[in-house]
Write a structure and sequence with these properties.
The protein has three domains: about 5-205, Aldehyde Ferredoxin Oxidoreductase,  A, domain 1 (4-Layer Sandwich), CATH 3.60.9; about 235-415, Aldehyde Ferredoxin Oxidoreductase Protein, subunit A, domain 2; about 435-600, Aldehyde Ferredoxin Oxidoreductase Protein, subunit A, domain 3. The protein contains 25 helices and 17 strands. The strands form four sheets. It has a six-stranded mixed sheet.
Length: about 600
């Protein structure tokens, strides 16, 4: 094969056995790679009703055909499994350096099954693969684990691992790679911990072979120059990273504030991108060979929140900052560092703490029960709770189950702002109708990375859609979902979309992507064929989700029944019921949200 290696590494942790197998060329073509291959294998091999933390669940690391190629942003991998947080599907995405090094081992997928008797890690040096003891690493944080694994294997290798949160089966535990990059959402780190798998170390020199190398490199250079020119021309993404977004969402009245009770935050000027750049930025930090460089290498030099690392990004700022009512950027940055070191998803962690804060302030939960003060605007209590959640210490053990389970235990599930029990990212869907439809229908629970229609509703790229209107949102959301699925399957980053996916000419992006795929794999994909493949992948995910019992596409009561009290979106609620029937029809699903027999037949499912 070209582009793909066409090889899978299967790791039976229960029996300490390694096997290697080839991929069916038809599966390779029809499911593209990455997220597509992974859901096909998960569907074939895992009962959707399996308990996520049981050994029968499988954990899949997946690269795409454009991972480790010259394609700009071609450095992503997916972690696919059944989610312990949602009880349904997880597919978390990460960049950094690890994805390219994983692909260079000569394998496209690592499939982990069973459970090791004692903690282990996997060392993959091309065809030399070993399962090694990690008992001496159990309990260590992510940086310490990474350094130790590199010392034991090769300084040239790259590491993905879990921290204490994954070991302790915290339901929002992340898998961290390159110390600060995260496959964060849906509790994939807890699944890794449930298998007693501490880390994966990858090294190799098997670069993918291009079918048409000259054309591939020429097109890649052209795209990289265009994207780089956009960044250098004053892109906020290059200048501030995603930390520029709080001012945008606040201006529209959709910045989550004090657990989504409000849409504007009076302290926004103290937690935004310019403040981060002025006070704490060392330099932008790109993923491997990326022309965008949206990552932020930062340092809080002194004081109680001193530290150094990557971040925070927008979602972290909106959860730990405005979401918790905290206007201290140093504290938010410290919370981010702790999440990276302990292996936690910043969105779910921050928003779960915010729910607890609201319950205390409304008298539903006493601080005596918690064992300490926990109120909106208290940065020290917030940071302390991050650590307690990772180690399941004291009250942190209850928050480690996620906001929905925690709030439900105390009789107030309506305060948990989740879909499929996964906490919302930082766009209030009462003032962004399409984002509400996206959250409600996402295959992995609330996630902007499932098809971020905020590009048009919030940022006006390429055209500004009225965020308060429901007109046309069904088609918009379905189109974005397929676009993001295609990008995830190919091994690219969605931020390439800033230049291509959401350009004024909406047909440029599938043309460019189908060309990249053709020059890489040698398969003459048409734009229609890659779009159909994305639809196939998304629909297969939907079937896994439904068979897992997650059949309700809805939003929490606060989004449907409580109008925003302030800001430009004041008085708005999300009108999901106005959009769902049209959305189901757009996707070829019946009135209950199940793909029709005709749709399944059309996609060859």
């Amino acid at each position: 094969m070209n582009g793909w290696h066409g090889r899978i590494l299967r790791v039976d942790l229960t029996n300490s056995k390694i096997s290697m197998e080839d991929v069916d060329p038809k599966i390779a073509r029809d499911y593209l790679g990455g997220r597509g291959w992974a859901i096909r294998y998960l569907t074939d091999e895992v009962d959707p009703m399996v308990e996520p933390l049981d050994p029968e669940n499988k954990l899949i690391f997946a690269t795409g055909p454009l991972t480790a190629t010259s394609a700009p942003t071609g450095n992503r991998y997916m972690v696919v499994t059944k989610s312990p947080l949602t009880g349904a599907l997880a597919h978390s995405n990460s960049g950094g350096d690890f994805p390219t090094w994983m692909k260079r081992t000569g394998f496209d997928l690592f499939i982990f099954e069973g459970k090791a008797e004692k903690p282990v890690y996997l060392w993959v040096n091309e065809d030399e693969v070993e399962i090694r003891s990690a008992e001496h690493l159990w309990g260590q944080d992510v940086p310490s684990t990474t350094d130790a694994l590199l010392a034991e294997t090769s300084a040239k290798a790259k590491v993905a691992c879990i921290g204490p949160a994954g070991e302790n089966l915290v339901l929002m535990a992340a898998i961290m790679n390159d110390k600060d990059r995260a496959a964060a959402r849906s509790g994939v780190g807890a699944v890794m911990g449930s298998k007693n798998l501490k880390g994966v170390v990858a090294y190799g020199r098997k670069n993918p072979v291009f079918a048409e190398e000259k054309k591939m490199r020429e097109l890649s250079i052209k795209i990289a120059k265009e994207v780089g020119a956009d960044m250098l021309a004053g892109s906020s993404l290059r200048e501030y990273g995603t930390a520029y977004v709080p001012q945008v969402t606040n201006s529209l009245g959709i910045l989550p504030t004090r657990n989504w009770q409000e849409g504007t935050f009076e302290g926004v000027d103290t937690i935004d991108g310019p403040t981060l750049t002025e006070k704490y930025l060392i330099k932008p930090k790109p993923c491997y060979r990326c022309p965008i460089a949206c990552g932020r290498l930062t340092e809080v030099p002194d004081g109680p929140y001193a530290g150094k690392g990557e971040g925070p990004e927008y979602e972290t700022i909106s959860s730990f900052g405005s979401g918790c009512g905290v206007d201290n950027l140093a504290a938010v940055t410290k919370a981010n560092y702790w999440c990276n070191e302990l292996g936690l998803d910043t969105i779910s962690t921050g928003m779960t703490i915010a729910v607890a804060m609201e319950m205390v302030e409304k008298g539903y939960l006493s601080e005596e029960k918690i064992g300490q003060p926990l109120r909106f605007g208290d940065p020290d209590a917030m940071i302390d709770m991050v650590q307690k959640m990772a180690y399941r210490e004291g009250f942190g053990d209850e928050l480690a189950e996620g906001s929905y389970r925690f709030a439900d235990k105390y009789g107030h599930p309506e305060l948990a702002v989740t879909t499929r029990k996964q906490e919302f990212p930082g766009y209030d869907p009462r003032g962004s109708q399409g984002m509400g439809l996206l959250y409600a229908t996402s295959n992995k629970g609330a996630s902007h990375m499932e098809g971020d229609v905020a590009y048009e509703e919030v940022f006006g790229v390429p055209v500004k859609e009225d965020p308060h209107s429901t007109d046309g949102k069904a088609e918009l959301v379905a189109r974005f979902q397929n676009a993001f699925t295609l990008i995830d399957a190919s091994g690219l980053c969605v931020f390439l979309a800033v230049r291509y996916v959401f350009s004024a000419d909406r047909m440029i992006w599938p043309v460019r992507l189908s060309q990249l795929m053709e020059y890489t794999t040698g398969i003459a994909y048409t734009p229609a064929e890659v779009l159909e493949a994305a639809d196939r992948v998304y629909t297969l995910e939907r079937m896994f989700l439904l068979k897992a019992g997650s059949t309700e596409d809805t939003l929490p009561p606060r989004m449907l029944n409580e109008p925003l009290p302030d800001g430009p979106a004041k008085g708005q609620v999300n009108r999901l019921d106005d959009m769902l029937p049209e959305f189901y029809a757009e996707r070829g699903w019946d009135e209950n949200g199940w793909p029709t027999e005709e749709k399944l037949k059309e996609l060859g499912l």
